[in-house]
Design brief:
alpha+beta; Butyryl-Coa Dehydrogenase, subunit A, domain 1; Butyryl-CoA Dehydrogenase, subunit A, domain 2; 3 domains
């Protein structure tokens, strides 16, 4: 096996803290949370107290001012645990990052300390019933009215939607196309904000996912994130980070699923020998493990590039494409080795299978990733 060299001793000490937190605060309750389709707000406060939220936020805003690898540790350990309830990744890697990167001083001081502590939960409001990967096609509109903007529209498939206190909301303030998109930080306590039902999903059952509605919701102009018409450009600067986070999660899940499949097939017997003794089992696992190591090496390289400010949209798209496809392949082929037990919800492989399918859609579908990669290649060819 290739030894990972990204992390130092301090990261590994923190990793052990995260593992213990998951074992103590999440594992005993997660089955109930899957039935409830939501985790309690108290968990977020406990995670904040443990230093697991928004690790990269500067100390002046209540954070640890740590490097990105501390967030990576949280994402990896949550992924390996198989517990999908708390939407920490959306909160930390996207919402807090948008505010840290583009927020005014007032916005940072209002929201970041509360997000670090878990007192305020963040959500990203972009997807709409008629606009998924094509963010330029959103219809939620913000109209200027004096010193305010009045927002009308709806969002769907919003992670943390039932719990969120603040939303990075994509709206249209201008005409058609990218230049008409503007972002706002919306306080969900404002009149005119309504949560729809907690959506019933194929997987990720512990995580609340909602429809959100905005009916003449009035926000001050100071709630704008960045400048008017700049929203699409701001979103594009963060998509690589979002796709990298998806790849990190998929790499960790693939490794963990392979590991416990090896454990299971080493013990389960059929026809007088363990399932792991069959050549077919060993060959399949060998193929999956090789692809998982390739994915891990590439993902770690992308993490290095990101931390050096060098990860571009094409590399991030390739990481998301490769790891999303591998994630789904691994859980599908490994489930087969569990036989009928693999179809039972009590087995982690069953939940991993259900949770996996969304990775080919969330954060940009695999088809969009292929379009980005292919378009880049042909653009270079035309320029030669």
């Amino acid at each position: 096996m290739i030894t990972r060299t990204l992390f130092c001793e301090e990261h590994e000490v923190f990793r052990e803290t995260v593992r213990k937190f998951i074992e103590r605060e999440i594992k005993p309750y997660h089955l109930q949370w899957e039935q409830d389709h939501i985790v309690p707000r108290e968990l977020w406060l406990k995670a904040g107290a443990a230093g697991m939220l928004c690790c990269t936020i500067p100390e002046e805003y209540g954070g640890a001012g740590a490097d990105y690898l501390f967030d990576v540790v949280v994402f990896e350990e949550m992924a390996k645990s198989g517990f999908t309830g708390p939407g920490f990744m959306i909160h930390c890697d996207l919402v807090a990052t948008y505010i840290k990167s583009f927020g005014s001083e007032e916005q940072k001081r209002k929201w970041l300390p509360k997000m670090v502590s878990g007192e305020a939960i963040g959500s990203l409001g972009m997807t709409e019933p008629h606009a998924g990967s094509d963010l330029k096609a959103i219809r939620t509109r913000a109209v200027r009215d004096g010193d305010d903007y009045v927002i009308n529209g709806q969002k769907v498939f919003i992670s943390n939607g039932q719990l969120c206190d603040v939303i990075v909301l994509a709206t249209k303030t201008g005409g058609e196309g990218a230049k008409g998109v503007t972002l706002f930080l919306v306080d969900t306590s404002l009149p005119g904000f309504h949560r729809g039902k907690n959506l019933e999903k194929l997987g990720m059952k512990g995580q609340d996912t909602s429809e959100l509605f905005f009916d003449d919701l009035r926000v001050p102009a100071s709630a704008m994130l960045g400048n008017e018409g700049q929203g699409f450009a701001l979103m594009m600067t963060k998509l690589s980070q979002e796709r990298l986070a998806q790849a990190i999660r998929s790499a960790a899940v693939a490794e963990e699923v392979i590991a416990y499949t090896v454990d299971y097939t080493s013990q389960r017997k059929a026809f007088g020998q363990t399932i792991g003794d069959f050549q077919n089992t060993q060959f399949k696992i060998a193929e999956l493990q090789t692809e998982a190591v390739i994915g891990r090496v590439f993902t770690d390289r992308c993490i290095e590039l990101f931390m050096n400010g060098q990860l571009d949209a094409v590399d991030a798209a390739m990481a998301k494409l490769w790891l999303s496809e591998l994630h789904c392949k691994v859980v599908d082929q490994c489930l087969q080795f569990f036989g009928g037990w693999g179809y039972m919800w009590e087995y982690p492989i069953s939940r991993a299978y259900a949770d996996a399918r969304v990775v080919k859609i969330a954060g940009g579908s695999v088809e969009i990733m292929k379009k980005i990669i292919g378009g880049s290649l042909y653009k270079k060819a035309r320029e030669r």
